[in-house]
Automatic annotation (TrEMBL):
Catalytic activity: Endonucleolytic cleavage at apurinic or apyrimidinic sites to products with a 5'-phosphate
Name of this chain's protein: Endonuclease V
Recorded name of the encoding gene: nfi
Keyword Acyltransferase: no
Organism: Hydrogenobacter hydrogenophilus
Predominant location category: cytoplasm
């Protein structure tokens, strides 16, 4: 495993990211999430889920789960090399591909400008948004506690993403461009699809995986 080569791949990926709206219309949004049988072991069995919702009703219109073996270790900032293969399998077989994907992870808010959401978007040429529960990289001022409040996530004067409050008095989430979308539109989409702290596409994808795990245990 050559980390320097993987860094080079990420840097090349970052050059291909399109940070402007490059689509006709958004009618559906899909959320992708992963879970592992034993996150401490490697290799381990894992599952990836996709839930696609209607942008107006926020109701699911398609869902799918794939199972596979993950054999790349967990290394911070190299998440794509661990989780992307299963996500690509899920994307390839999906009978209903959404207009935009929300990925549980970072987009350009990454030390080398290509987190898993950007990596997924560039490889599949999909519109994608990074929607993370924790900060990986950068600095920000805490936004107001009111829903819809946000502040820029920055590093050395560059805007990496936004720290967005999706619900009153809850922890914010970290939104960044994945591919083929502007940060402004990404923020608007995440807020529009959020009832709870986590947007419905990724929240429902997570819940679907919990049902799978419960059924198997």
């Amino acid at each position: 495993m050559d980390l320097e080569e993987l860094k080079r791949i990420q840097q090349e990926c970052a050059k291909k990211v399109v940070q402007k709206d490059d689509f006709q219309e958004i009618r559906t949004v899909g959320g992708i999430d992963l879970t592992f049988q034993d996150i401490r072991n490697n290799p381990t069995k894992a599952w990836a889920s996709l839930v696609v919702i209607d942008i107006n009703t926020l109701k699911p219109i398609y869902e799918d789960v794939v199972e596979g073996i993950v054999d790349f270790p967990y290394i911070p900032t190299f998440l794509a090399f661990r989780e992307l293969p299963l996500m690509l399998s899920l994307h390839q077989r999906a009978k209903k591909k959404p207009d935009v994907y929300f990925i549980d992870g970072q987009g350009v808010a990454h030390p080398r400008g290509c987190g898993i959401a950007s990596h997924f978007g560039v490889i599949t040429q999909s519109v994608s948004v990074g929607v993370a529960k924790t900060k990986l990289f950068g600095y920000y001022k805490e936004p107001s506690t009111k829903r819809g409040s946000w502040s820029y996530l920055t590093y050395r004067g560059n805007i990496l993403g936004a720290v967005l409050r999706t619900r009153d008095d809850t922890e914010p989430i970290y939104v960044s461009v994945g591919h083929r979308i502007s940060l402004k539109t990404a923020i608007e989409l995440v807020l529009k699809t959020s009832i709870y702290r986590i947007p419905e596409p990724t929240r429902l994808a997570h819940n679907l995986l919990q049902k799978v795990r419960k059924k198997l245990s």
